[in-house]
Here is the input.
Amino acid sequence: MSLDLTLANLGQTDRLMPSSVLGMLWLQTHFEDEHWDLLSRGEVELEPACSACLCEDATAAGLVITRIPAAAPATPPQS
Here is the structure.
């Protein structure tokens, strides 16, 4: 099973990145032509509600999606 799309949490938004040719082709069927360049470079950020809808649609189409959680804030060293 190959990974097709990645959503990386950036805090308030999720960065959408295609991870396979199938993932990119699926994105091309769901976004207008002017967005394809940004999509192919993984430079599209989505609101959480949009990410959830995209995941539902992509999963229903048989794509494999991974979600990368936001990085935990660094804690200062204890003295």
User: Anything to note?
Assistant: Residues 7 and 14 are 6 Å apart (CA to CA). The chain has a mean pLDDT of 89. The first strand starts at residue 5 and ends at 9.
